[in-house]
Design goal:
heterotrimer, A mainly alpha (about 325), B alpha/beta (about 525), C mainly alpha (about 300), A: about 325 residues, mainly alpha, MetI-like fold, 2 domains, two-stranded antiparallel ribbon, 16 helices, B: about 525 residues, alpha/beta, D-Maltodextrin-Binding Protein, domain 2, 5-stranded mixed β-sheet, 4-stranded mixed β-sheet, 20 helices, about 40% helix, about 15% strand
């Protein structure tokens, strides 16, 4: 840490003067910083219960240390590798499907020349975000159920055999990934729309004078302009790569698809939270954090190599 | 930079230590005005309605006559949310004085020394103990030889029945099936012979959804108990002397699985059964999707629940039938246990000297005054007594205990009801259906359902629960067999049992057997 | 970026839509527009399916028979308003709604007051210690240590049973801070530099230069915060024990889970309305403030905000 900081401050030789020059910046930081320490770092301090046999009567500090027992319980659990595989599958799957969909949607909204269409889509697109997964389950059930689902009615119309999408191991992962994209694309697009609004429109004019068509405009101006935001969103998503969407999964899964549906968070919920194993739950949280941190560091390095200015730090 | 960093670190350490240190201040027993504050976290009777209003007369009565300053907090409606909230409070060492808790969580709290044994307190509430706490009830809250909480009766036992569409049977000229072969024939006819005569292929024989837990209702759950019962394997545990242990080990369990799998393959089972939630299932029978089901008495026959079915099918009629007999003549509607709601007292409350006042509160709840006030509200405002002394809504409208304004005053009734005849008569009045003019009563349905043969599994609720991996393996494997992902052959079945034993199923079974023997649950 | 600012200096005034009209469209442009339009219509349909089915579900009468699909085409004169009547008549609803509004207003205010300065400071490139600051901010984001450590904190600082307990733990979301910083980074450095030379303090620069240029992102982040507080069920469940302080998500959850739990199935708080309709209606009732707020926020989403500001 120390060495690195020294490295940044090399071009500005007098550190003290720099700090003094920025004193009102630090002042601005004061309240958020104190807040941050209290609400973010105190819980991390409390997270030492991951290494303890936590007993409520003794409190966090008074409980006895037990080393890595909780971590071992997690790593040695019967389904550990499957949980990890499923979690990574859904996290990456959601990044690969949902992120491009929301970017394309935001660009389409930006480029659409029909005022009414543009406004309607922009106004409605984020609403499915408000439908909780309980409601979404109802919608999905209506679409996908084997005996009354709309999709299966269509399959039957073409002489196929109905598929029980929600309880078939093959179809279930797609249901999860696509329903997530469906529900969240408009919501995620808002941030990209905000970014698009900051594009300097004179760039488009210049491009058109030079004879670029719409496709080239998107390719060479629009996308590069919002690239920093896309990269930031991507890096932040990578930071929480082991969160694969507890609420969605908890609502959609059932025993016959556990093998492709059980993720770390659902396991922790069943094993840890409902059984007073808070040390275990916290240990898993720390594990997820370490993996997330490593991935962020690696991808941040990659990003800073390839595109200056969009890395996190 | 060094200084800045060290300054930050110091600030960070200071904050964390200041705010992280555990321990909560103890509340003193007696308030300035001489009352004792009791914090009670209760399970609401009507979860979706609001909390008890601040102007409830019970507060005043308790304060003035008993010196109790009652603070109520309603627990979340969902069982796992309740567990999470109680456990969070426990982790913070800040449990309320008296709170409702599920037995698995109670066990953990006892381990942590957070709840007080209450063995000596039953004597302080003679009236309530006579009404609510019998030997079974005390056993339900007993852990390692001490009772850690008061277990009040929950829902009425044996309140479900096997129902069949009488009008469909009549349309097709069929008799009520008495054994599994006849049942299969009827289900096939219900599925393929257009029993409702609407010319569409939109009906199924049997309807169900997955309703299972890790104590009584083993996977595939209570909705299939009449089928499992025909093989003598309904319920997760078999508590009979000779076959003591998990039912899944019995060879008949495999036969039952084969039969259910056959129902799926013949297409007579509503294929949505694996994905239905409880509401979907209930909406489905009201729309006439299937002709045989297991349903709860009030969910089937109470006025508001039966009304949509009555409007949709004025000629439709469900009848409660005997469970079908299996190959060896066995039959059962299902395994049943007594249901309880445990209210535990925190150790802190006892340490603060509140135990006697808590008992006084509970005893008051079971006095005539408290019982009617908590159960139905104020006489003349929320209920009137009919000629038999049964509280009824009369013409009190919205303010009645069943009306939208009055019902919030009955949120505590789960703490006072003990399934007396008066309660049942009040809860399940006889009425005439709106469209078809039938005379219906959920109470008659209940009595008929209770008269059928049930498998006693009293004490299942106390049995040890497996860890999440074992439970998942159990449920997932059975689900895979039933959905056909894994072929249901004797070899695969044996492989499943072996693996189940290996990951902890055998230990779970051994623990359960030992527990049942030690606690006299074997019959 | 340097090229961009150079271009900006030449432009005096720009209308947002100019780039679509000045030059005659080529064939590729026309194809592009068609593709965009088709895509938009497709999206509209995809979005409308769950929305419309939920709308019709909320109006479904108790005696409805038929499939979900048919339900979507139920004629408006067959609609029943029982679900909405029942919800509005529910004695807990108004109280919960008021609590939620308090949480929303207080939460968004606190969150923006805390987030904007933090994000701004992180975007001051010359600041010594900026990298450490970023690291400090980022660590809690990846280390989500879960329920109990956070619970102990809230309890120890005495926030239990205050509405603030619902929003304060989430009043700085690292995700939002980083996103906002990313937008602040996009503001031309020379703008701030020239203000500094003119003797403006950092607070003045933030208020006079940065904020007017960042309306869209501030609104967006405000919306993100607002929605997260409005929908926060978990904090409310853990930290609010006084039933009179329960916000809407608690009531909503109780409604959505009611049928799963309620043993007294003969009584329901909603009279005749079918439970599916209640569920659907409750979702819409709870989304109302956000639905009203969004069009206002959209007003700030106008193209080319940056250009005008540079010149003006």
């Amino acid at each position: 840490m120390q060495r690195k900081d020294a490295a940044i401050t090399v071009p500005k030789p007098n550190l003290k003067r720099e700090i003094v020059r920025h004193k009102d910046v630090y002042l601005l930081l004061l309240i958020p910083f104190v807040f941050y320490i209290v609400f973010k770092y105190v819980p991390i301090f409390n997270a030492q219960i991951a290494f303890k046999d936590f007993r409520a009567r003794d409190g966090v500090i008074g409980s006895a240390w037990i080393g890595f027992q909780n971590f071992q319980d997690f790593f040695n659990s019967f389904y550990f590798w499957e949980l990890l595989r499923n979690t990574l599958f859904y996290s990456f799957g959601k990044i690969i499907i949902s992120l491009p969909v929301s970017i394309i949607l935001s660009i389409a909204i930006y480029e659409c020349t029909h005022y009414a269409l543009r406004k309607t889509v922009q106004t409605l697109a984020y609403l499915p975000h408000f439908l909780s997964w309980v409601i979404m389950y109802g919608v999905l059930f209506a679409l996908l159920s084997p005996s009354s689902g709309i999709l299966n009615d269509i399959i039957k119309l073409f002489g196929g055999t109905p598929i029980d999408f929600l309880s078939s191991v093959k179809a279930f992962p797609w249901v999860v990934l696509l329903s997530d994209a469906w529900k969240e694309m408009g919501w995620s697009a808002i941030i990209f729309i905000a970014a698009l609004m900051n594009i300097d429109v004179s760039l488009f004019e210049a491009a058109m004078v030079e004879g670029a068509n719409s496709w080239q405009r998107v390719r060479y101006i629009t996308l590069p302009s919002i690239k920093p935001v896309i990269v930031t969103v991507l890096l932040l998503k990578i930071g929480t790569i082991l969160d694969a969407g507890f609420n969605q999964m908890y609502m959609l899964y059932s025993p016959q698809v556990y093998s492709v549906a059980d993720i770390i968070d659902t396991w922790v919920y069943r094993q840890g939270l409902l059984n007073f194993q808070f040390g275990l739950a916290t240990a898993v949280g720390l594990f997820k954090g370490i993996i997330g941190m490593l991935l962020v560091l690696v991808s941040n390095r990659l990003v800073s190599k390839f595109s200056e200015g969009s890395s996190l730090f | 930079m060094k200084r800045l960093l060290s300054l930050l670190l110091v600030a960070l350490m200071a904050c964390t230590v200041v705010f992280a240190a555990g321990g909560s201040e103890k509340t003193t027993a007696v308030n300035a005005d001489g009352t004792v504050t009791i914090n009670l976290w209760y399970g609401a009777a009507i979860t979706e309605a609001g909390p008890i209003p601040d102007d409830w007369v019970g507060y005043d009565i308790l304060r003035e006559e008993h010196g109790i300053d009652l603070h109520l907090s309603v627990l979340p409606s969902n069982e796992s949310d309740q567990d999470v909230r109680i456990q969070a409070a426990a982790a913070g060492n800040s449990l309320p004085d008296l709170f409702m808790v599920s037995r698995p969580v109670l066990t953990r709290l006892v381990d942590q020394g957070l709840v007080a044994p209450v063995d000596d307190y039953y004597a302080l509430m003679p009236n309530r103990t006579a009404q609510q706490y019998d030997a079974d009830s005390i056993a339900m809250s007993t852990i390692d030889g001490h009772s850690y909480g008061f277990a009040s009766p929950g829902s009425v036992a044996k309140n479900e029945g096997l129902l069949i569409r009488k009008d469909w049977l009549d349309n097709l000229g069929l008799e009520v099936p008495t054994n599994l072969d006849e049942l299969m024939e009827v289900m096939i006819a219900f599925t393929y012979d257009d029993p409702d005569g609407n010319g569409k292929d939109d009906t199924y024989g049997y309807g169900a959804y997955i309703e299972s837990d890790a104590t009584l209702k083993g996977y595939p759950g209570a909705r299939l108990f009449p089928i499992l019962g025909a093989f003598g394997v309904d319920g997760l545990w078999c508590l009979e002397e000779e076959n003591l242990g998990l039912n899944v080990y019995k060879p008949e369990f495999y036969d039952a699985m084969v039969y259910i799998r056959q129902m799926c393959e013949e297409g007579v089972m509503d294929p949505n059964w694996l994905t239905y939630k409880k509401d979907d299932f209930r909406a489905a029978w009201k729309q006439g999707r299937f002709g045989i089901m297991k349903e709860q008495n009030a969910a089937y026959a109470a006025e508001a629940n039966y009304a949509p079915f009555d409007a949709n099918f004025p000629d439709g009629e469900w009848i409660i039938v005997d469970p079908p007999k299996g190959p060896e003549g066995l039959a059962s509607v299902g395994a049943y246990d007594q249901n309880y709601r445990i209210y535990a007292m925190s150790q802190d409350a006892v340490d603060a000297g509140k135990a006697e006042k808590i008992c006084e509160l509970l005893e008051w709840m079971s006095s005539d005054e408290g019982y009617f006030l908590c159960g139905w509200g104020q006489e003349g405002v929320n209920y009137v007594l009919d000629e038999n002394g049964v509280p009824v809504a009369g013409d009190l409208g919205d303010n009645a205990f069943s009306g939208t304004q009055g019902q919030v005053y009955t949120q505590l009734r789960n703490m006072v009801f003990y399934n007396s005849d008066t309660e049942l008569a009040s809860r399940y009045p006889t009425y005439t259906t709106a469209t078809s003019g039938k005379t219906m009563s959920a109470l008659t349905a209940l009595r008929e359902m209770q008269s059928k043969y049930w498998t006693a599994a009293i004490g299942s609720g106390q049995m040890p629960t497996p860890n999440a991996d074992v439970q998942r393996y159990y449920e997932q494997s059975l689900a895979e067999f039933l959905s056909g992902q894994r072929a249901l052959t004797p070899e695969n079945w044996q492989a499943f049992l072996d693996q189940f034993n290996a990951i902890g199923g055998a230990d779970w079974n051994a623990q359960g057997v030992a527990y049942a023997q030690e606690n006299g649950l074997v019959r | 970026m340097a090229e961009a600012t150079a271009k900006k200096k030449e432009r005096v005034h720009l209308k947002p839509k100019m780039h679509n009209s000045t030059v005659r469209p080529t064939r590729a442009d026309k194809v592009f527009q068609i593709v965009v339009d088709v895509f938009m219509v497709l999206m509209l349909i995809i979005i409308l399916i769950p929305l419309w089915s939920t709308v019709t579900l909320s109006f479904r009468p108790n005696t409805y028979i038929g499939t979900y699909l048919e339900g979507m085409f139920l004629a408006p004169w067959d609609w029943s308003f029982d679900a909405y009547k029942a919800l509005l008549g529910n004695n807990g609803f108004l109280m919960a709604f008021t609590n939620s509004l308090k949480i929303l207003v207080g939460g968004v205010f606190c969150a923006l007051i805390l987030t904007i300065p933090l994000a701004y400071v992180m975007s001051v490139k010359s600041l010594p210690g900026r990298k450490i600051l970023t690291t400090i901010v980022l660590i809690p984001y990846v280390f989500d240590v879960g329920m109990i450590p956070a619970y102990l904190l809230v309890q120890n600082i005495g926030l239990m049973d205050h509405l603030a307990a619902v929003f304060l733990p989430g009043a700085i979301s690292t995700y939002n801070v980083i996103i906002m910083r990313q937008f602040f980074d996009g503001i031309p450095a020379e703008l701030k530099e020239s203000a500094r030379i003119d003797g403006c303090s950092e607070v003045q620069i933030l208020m006079r230069i940065v904020m007017p240029l960042s309306k869209a992102i501030v609104m967006t982040i405000g919306l993100y915060y607002g929605v997260s507080f409005w929908n926060n069920f978990f904090n409310a469940m853990l930290y609010i024990q006084d039933s009179n302080l329960n916000p809407l998500p608690i009531l909503l959850r109780n409604i959505l889970m009611a049928a799963g739990m309620n043993e007294y199935v003969e009584v329901s708080a909603f009279g005749n309305a079918p439970i599916e309709a209640i569920k659907a209606a409750s979702v819409f009732m709870s989304a109302i403030p956000m639905v009203i707020a969004y069009p206002f926020i959209q007003k700030y989403f106008t193209k080319g905000t940056m250009v005008g500001a540079v010149k003006g």
